[in-house]
Amino acid sequence: MTPADRPDRAGPSKAGTDEPASTVELTPAAAELIRMLRLAHGPLMFHQSGGCCDGSAPMCYPAGEFRTGGSDVLLASLAVAGVEESVPFWMSTSQYELWRHTRLIVDVVEGRGSGFSLEAPEGVRFLIRSRLV
Questions:
Q1: Radius of gyration of the chain (CA)
Q2: I need a surface site. Which of 26, 28, 78, 121 has the fewest CB within 10 A?
């Protein structure tokens, strides 16, 4: 991973918390897919809800298409080489409470995920790998 592929390591932007920051990283494969999706769809965002089925996978949307609110936490603004703007990574507060002590690594695997995420037609899907921090 080049320095430009490294995510912004700022902590979660949830007002009034002093909890340790979760970090989000991208594998080189995820960064490459983000560059491809950015060219096709414009600025992007991620959201991970922690729901059932594919709801527990990170979903990639055009920026602003998924409405976030008080029940979501902004974990990182990911800097991706070749992408002008950062890519925000949001997570539902309930999921964040379960994963707040982990480093999240966004990766790509073959196979179809949710039809709601932009990569679905490509025959691949984003997924999270994690490490306890």
A1: 14
A2: 121
Structural domain contains residue 125: yes
For 42-51, write each residue's pLDDT tens digit. Answer: 999 999 987 6
Q: Which two tokens stand for residue 1?
A: 């991973």
**94-123 pLDDT, tens digit each:** 999 988 899 999 999 998 866 689 999 999
Query: Which long-range contacts does 27-32 make (Cβ < 8 Å, 24+ apart)?
Result: 27/1, 27/105, 27/106, 27/107, 27/108, 28/1, 29/107, 29/108, 30/106, 30/107, 30/108, 30/126, 31/1, 31/5, 31/80, 31/81
In a domain, 21, yes or no: no
Q: Let me know the angle formed at the C-alpha of 53 by 50 and 56, rounded to the nearest 5 degrees.
A: 25
> Which CATH number is 70's domain given?
2.60.300
Instruction: Give the number of domains in the chain.
Output: 1
Q: Are 131 and 107 in contact (CB under 8 A)?
A: no
To the question of pTM greater than 0.85 for the whole model, the response is: no
Nearest to 60 by CA among 85, 29, 88: 88
Of the candidates 78, 91, 90, the residue with the CA atom closest to the CA atom of residue 38: 78
The distance of Cα 89 from the centroid of its chain, to the nearest Å, equals: 4
